[in-house]
Amino acid sequence: MDDNLIYKIALSMIPGVGGILARNLVSYIGSVEGVFKESKKALLKIPGIGEVNVKRISNKEIFERAERELKFIHKENINSLFYTDKNYPRRLKNCVDAPVLIYTKGNIKLDEQRVISIVGTRNATDYGKQVCEELIQQFSERKYPILIVSGLAYGIDVHAHKSALNYNLPTVGVVAHGLDKLYPSLHKEIASKMLENGGLLSDFPSETKIDPPNFLRRNRIIAGMADATIVVESAEKGGALVTADIAFSYNRDVFAFPGRAGDTYSKGCNKLIRNNGASLITGIDDLEFFMGWEIDDKEKVVQPSLFVELTKDEEKVVDLLKENSELFIDQISSKLSMPVSRVSALLLNMEFKNILKALPGKMYRLK
Fold first, then answer.
1. Which domain holds residue 204?
2. Taking every pair of C-alpha atoms in the chain, what is the biggest distance, in angstroms?
3. What is the reported pLDDT for 307?
4. Are 228 and 148 found together in one domain?
5. What are phi and psi of 117, to 5 degrees?
6. Is the pLDDT of residue 295 over 60?
7. Which of 31, 51, 75 corresponds to the end of one domain?
8. pLDDT of residue 3
9. In the prediction, which pLDDT does 301 show?
10. Rounded Cα gap, residues 52 and 35, in angstroms
11. Are residues 45 and 21 part of one domain?
């Protein structure tokens, strides 16, 4: 296992080879190990790979660095998830620029039934903190199986994590460095508590320097892991707005709490709403309406077969979703022993019949 893992770590560390190009390499060659054993001539035939990247792939220093990382994650009990692994978060996997390898620490269920990212300014006001806490309290009262994701930064981020823990909801902090350190260091105590009910996640290896561009890079994970991103407070410019833009580009839902005209840390939210970059919400009722959530999934039992004629395959899908409430397309494919391409066509037809509702991340549930 370690032999295979070291190749995965090495692939993620090749300079200039991001998630898209790394996946192309594996797809063309057929295995991670093959990337490092393929001939130069064959590598040069792969789109996007030139002389410079071929030299980077063959650089022995990459494996020396990967060996150090392998020792580190074993010593610190850190879990690594490659994009082909079963436990790699499915919502993130569907993002075109998702990292090929992520590192996690803690007690985390990354594919919780509902995942919400909450972001905002580092200069949170009392209004922003109150809005954030009330929303998370409402999540708890509704007893949703939900995961709260944020960036463990000052302000709204850390307040979201603290509120989640206060109301016994799992929460994950996506950090912009390796799991050998924590920035800001003031949040070590809250991060430690998060390991018990949630944890930390990063696509950066240990020894990564604290670098401002990394914080923008990690925002794609915050956006990609979630069904929806909620901006609580933001100035006209800031990382929260970047995260919202990324979520929008992933076709995920984006929401924002409005603020008073002229308030510095509501200008970003008001602008998002004005420019149709986010839907306005004032609380959980609005969120439930936009997301199509129900207070209790079991309260409303739908029997589509009474209203429309179903094929045998459609009946199988309905039975599955009655048992499981919500399922990802690959889970449906596995349970029915049916190719994903065929399942995709089947689900689309059932959507047209108004039997199913498609959720973010290629998840489906009965209407």
1. 107-291
2. 64
3. 52
4. yes
5. -100, 130
6. no
7. 75
8. 60
9. 44
10. 15
11. yes
CB 80 within 8 A of CB 32: no
User: Which of 299, 300, 338 has the alpha carbon at shortest distance from 316?
Assistant: 338
Listed in sequence order, the residues at least 6 apart from 271 whose beta carbon sits closer than 8 Å to its beta carbon are 236, 277
* 187 lies in some domain: yes
Q: Cβ neighbours of residue 257 under 8 Å, at least 6 residues apart?
A: 128, 131, 230, 231, 232, 233, 269, 280, 281, 282
- The pTM for the full model equals 0.81
State whether 123 and 253 are in the same domain: yes
Contact 81, 216 (CB under 8 A): no
- Residue 272: per-residue pLDDT: 95
Report the b/e string of 27-61 with b at 16+ CB within 10 A.
Answer: ebbeebbebbebeeeebeebeebeeebbebbeeee
Q: Look up tokens 């048992």; give the residue.
A: 323
Q: What is the pLDDT of residues 118-166, one digit of tens each?
A: 999 999 999 999 999 999 999 999 988 999 999 999 999 999 999 999 9
The tokens for 237 are 């410019």
If one counts the domains in the chain, the total is: 3
8 Å CB contact between 115 and 191: no
pLDDT score at 1: 45
Confirm whether 95 is domain-assigned: no
Q: How confident is the model at residue 303 (pLDDT cuts 50, 70, 90)?
A: very low
pLDDT tens-digit map of 15-49: 988 888 999 999 889 999 999 988 888 888 888 88
Residue 334 has pLDDT above 90, yes or no: no
User: In whole angstroms, what is the distance from residue 177 CA to residue 159 CA?
Assistant: 20
As a whole number of angstroms, the distance between CA 19 and CA 11 comes to 9
Claim to verify: residue 18 and residue 121 sit in the same structural domain: no
Do 216 and 179 contact (CB within 8 A), yes or no?
no
